[in-house]
Amino acid sequence: MSIRFREIEEKDNAAIAALIRSTLEKFELDIPGTAYFDKGLDHLSDVYGSEDSAYYILTDDTDHVLGGIGYARLDFMKDTAELQKLYLDEELRGAGTGYEMISFIEDKMREAGFSAAYLETHDNLRAAIHIYEKAEYREIERPAEVVHSTMTRFYLKKL
Question: pLDDT-derived band of residue 148, with 50, 70 and 90 as boundaries?
């Protein structure tokens, strides 16, 4: 099976929202203060796609949605984009695909002119934390401007 990235389209909204919600449920994070309750979760194709934000879908040969990852300008840190909504189908976890997704989105952030990447995660997401740290994100103190109040870990990387 080959996988590819493409920009999100309206037809992807339901599939990526379902993947995000099922993943958060699995890790007991289907609670307020997480992406589970983001207003735009069911319409990500409308949320992303400006000069300061983009969201990409990971698909297989049949265009089946296997994951997604995006970024958006972070207003409270200069020249920084937030890595957002990295979710991956359970069947692909542990195969290095998460690293490939991070590398891909970091390239897109650089192309958009950002010099740093920020992300938020939760202690329950041990595998994600491992990937972020191995991808050279360094943990920072919780910024006062955090929107997802349930998040417990915060990372920054120079691009």
Answer: low
What is d(CA 70, CA 19) in angstroms, rounded to the nearest whole number?
15
pTM for the whole structure: 0.92
The answer to whether 19 and 89 are in contact (CB under 8 A) is yes
* Closest of 39, 37, 6 to residue 149, by C-alpha: 37
Q: 54: which strand partners?
A: 71
Map residue 48 onto helix, strand or coil: coil
| Domain ranges (residues) in the chain | 4-158
pLDDT tens, position by position, 132-142: 999 999 999 99
> How many angstroms separate the CA atoms of 128 and 122, rounded?
9
Say if CB 127 and CB 9 are below 8 A apart.
no
Q: Name the CATH superfamily housing domain 4-158.
A: Gcn5-related N-acetyltransferase (GNAT) (3.40.630.30)
